[in-house]
Design brief:
eight-stranded mixed sheet, 10 helices, 2 domains, binds uridine-5'-diphosphate, alpha/beta, 17% strand, binds magnesium ion
Length: 315
């Protein structure tokens, strides 16, 4: 019997969860009878009644498992915990807010069994319902990260992907602490088919991502998968050295020919400002990588479990 595992990271989703469950069940009901389902909810340190709702659901439905973290570790940690703890032949990730429509799952599964693909991903073709400024920066981010990495990062790609076991195993073999799932997924490669759909607004509750959190996440993505910013600061440094060398020669000649009238301190101040600005900027870039390395070498666990349901197969 084949099994499909569905991982659902949840952080303060008490309003959305009952709606999500209802919609999910409606959609997995008419899958062929020889397919088993496993639904794993990861409670990422919610402060509301999310865990209680998950527990209630799991009493009604034995396919439901849950893992509850000791605090909020972030969606990336929840995804990792999910991937590590499911046993399905096919695995997918869905947001609890129904922005990843369960109705697509059937088509995704069909593609995997009928065509020669290892994973089916979903991407939003619109960002309707999202703040305009957020969409603009998201577009910019994808342009930037695609220039800086050697693999493709698909614009609008969701974490909602149905993967075969090989893909899951290769993603969990990447044990890094600073996790950027979309990048990890692109990094491992494999044959992926993308299906498109129009953005769906969140069904209930509120987004957990502020603009600041997204910016930090974007920087995480770039530093985790590219060292181009470091090259960039070296190149700027080199250009400045060359320019200053040429200027020194020009000034020596000028002084020899015209004497040494002392003027030009305002321009000097501007140059000092600019150069020290660039130095700090480069130092900041190096600092970013250093801080990531620092966190990486500590080898802290990516998540800590407070409790889990007792229907895991001796894991
Ligand atoms: N989420 C999580 N931990 C967090 C933040 C979010 O597990 O720290 C979950 C959240 O419950 C939801 C999914 O990640 O199921 C996506 O979050 P959200 O809908 O807030 O993000 P958006 O769709 O606005 O990008
Ligand atoms: Mg959402």
């Amino acid at each position: 019997m084949e099994k499909i595992s569905i991982i659902v990271p949840c952080y303060n989703e008490e309003k959305a969860l009952p709606l999500f469950y209802e919609e999910l069940i409606k959609n997995i009901k008419d899958f062929p009878k020889n397919i088993d389902f496993e639904i794993l909810f990861i409670n990422d340190g919610s402060k509301d009644d999310t865990l209680k709702i998950i527990k209630n659901l799991s009493e009604k439905d034995t396919r439901i498992k849950y893992i509850s973290f000791s605090r909020n570790f972030g969606k990336e940690a929840a995804i990792f915990a999910g991937l590590e703890n499911v046993t399905g032949d096919y695995v997918t990730l869905m947001d609890a807010d129904l922005q990843d429509p369960p109705s697509l799952l059937k088509d995704m599964y069909k593609i995997l069994i009928e065509e020669d693909y290892d994973a089916v991903g979903t991407r939003r073709t619109t960002r309707k319902g999202e703040p305009v400024i957020r969409s603009i920066f998201a577009k910019l981010f994808y342009k930037l990260i695609n220039k800086m990495t050697s693999f493709e990062n698909v614009d609008g790609a969701r974490d909602y992907v149905l993967m075969k076991r090989v893909v899951v195993d290769s993603i969990i073999s990447l044990k890094e602490y600073n996790r950027y799932y979309k990048g990890l997924f692109s990094f491992v490669g494999f044959k992926i088919k993308w299906i498109e759909y129009k953005n769906i607004p969140r069904v209930a509750g509120q987004t957990k991502w502020s603009f600041w959190k997204l910016t930090k996440y974007a920087l995480e993505g770039i530093t985790a998968f590219s060292t181009v910013p470091l090259v960039f600061s070296s190149v700027i440094g080199l250009i400045f050295c060359l320019v200053s060398f040429l200027l020194i020669i020009a000034i020596i000649f000028k002084t020899l020919i015209l004497g040494d009238p002392t003027s030009g301190w305002p321009s000097l101040v501007c140059i000092i400002f600019m150069v020290s600005g660039i130095q700090l900027f480069s130092l900041g870039i190096i600092g970013q990588y250093l801080s990531k390395t620092y966190l990486e070498v500590k080898r802290r666990p990516i998540y800590i479990i407070r409790e889990k349901s007792n229907n895991f197969e001796n894991k």
